[in-house]
Amino acid sequence: MSAKQLFFRRLVREWKDQWHIFHSVLDWSVLLYIAIPSIVFGTLFYIDLWRNVDLYWHPDFPILLILLPVLLVSTMGNFRTYLLKADLLFLIQRKKTIHTLKILGFFYTFVLKTINSLVLVFMVTPVMLKVYYYSFEDLMNLALYLLAFSLTFLTVNKIIDHRLIKWSILFLLFVGATLGALFPNQYVSSICIVVVVVSHLTYIIKNNHWFLREIEIEEYEKTKYVRLIINFSAEVEKAPSSTFKKPILLWRKSGRIFKERSQQNGLLELILKGFLRDRGLFFTYLQLMLLTCTAIYILPFWLKWVIWILFFLFINLWTKALYTKLMSSPFFSVVPTNEGIELEVCNRFIKLLTLPPVLFTGMLSVLSTIL
């Protein structure tokens, strides 16, 4: 089997797998009541946006409110290679096949990102034309700029292994691209695209240094829709990641939280560290606080304090449920705890996690009310 046949065979197989995933979710009731009405509503909304753009977008709004989401969407995705773990066995014997497979995957990704850039520009065309007075040439320059940014972003994301360095560069790249999107230059964009394409064809694709990274990307891309469905499924508990990675900045060296050693302090420290090291739980905690702060800042006077009271009640219930979840860990089946100290530890745990966000949101409510 040639490399082209192998590529298209794997491509078609993935399309079929993804279709089966969507088909398992989009049954007739979802199609009838959600999918089809959403498509119809979206089409009518886009048509009405062309006719009455002033009803949806004010000219005083900064153009970055449109460019930022467009740039964020452009960062999604990866360079596809359609490699499998088993290909590692044939890497030495069939280098040409692997090389051709990577080239085809790169150009397939290039075509997808080109279509993605054109679709994004098409979606914001009514606002850009009628509010910010972009010309057709400006829109094409913007599409070319998005393509150049997307290819550059994905390249950096692939070739840099060190997480701190990679995310620092990606952040600076995004900030620079946001500023550059205000005045996109077709020549600069074209040069960036040429540099990315040439670097891939002459070095990155030929080099097997990123082979394991490419395998990891393929596994991620194949299961991303399954994980998306699981994340939105209320019946399925989201298990934490099983890969152990060293933290970038926080909690790199674990030490004792409490100087005084006792059963209560030991159990509380164990529960706190379990919470802080669980990304899902910790980021949910931050999201609750940020969402409440946003609501308090935006809503009128009397609703601010209603939101704060509801948040105070909810965060108490949530932290209590969180404590119960952490205590149900299989670890405590092997190492049982003294039941006499659990109530005291639970109360201290709730206070430690409830007091900071309640005080912070309360201060924000007071300041936003006074000012």
From TrEMBL:
<protein>
    <submittedName>
        <fullName>Uncharacterized protein</fullName>
    </submittedName>
</protein>
<feature type="transmembrane region" description="Helical">
    <location>
        <begin position="280"/>
        <end position="299"/>
    </location>
</feature>
<dbReference type="GO" id="GO:0016020">
    <property type="term" value="C:membrane"/>
</dbReference>
<keyword id="KW-0472">Membrane</keyword>
<feature type="transmembrane region" description="Helical">
    <location>
        <begin position="305"/>
        <end position="323"/>
    </location>
</feature>
<feature type="transmembrane region" description="Helical">
    <location>
        <begin position="61"/>
        <end position="83"/>
    </location>
</feature>
<keyword id="KW-0812">Transmembrane</keyword>
<dbReference type="Pfam" id="PF05975">
    <property type="entry name" value="EcsB"/>
</dbReference>
<feature type="transmembrane region" description="Helical">
    <location>
        <begin position="21"/>
        <end position="49"/>
    </location>
</feature>
<feature type="transmembrane region" description="Helical">
    <location>
        <begin position="103"/>
        <end position="127"/>
    </location>
</feature>
<dbReference type="InterPro" id="IPR010288">
    <property type="entry name" value="EcsB_ABC"/>
</dbReference>
<feature type="transmembrane region" description="Helical">
    <location>
        <begin position="187"/>
        <end position="205"/>
    </location>
</feature>
<feature type="transmembrane region" description="Helical">
    <location>
        <begin position="139"/>
        <end position="157"/>
    </location>
</feature>
<keyword id="KW-1133">Transmembrane helix</keyword>
<feature type="transmembrane region" description="Helical">
    <location>
        <begin position="164"/>
        <end position="181"/>
    </location>
</feature>
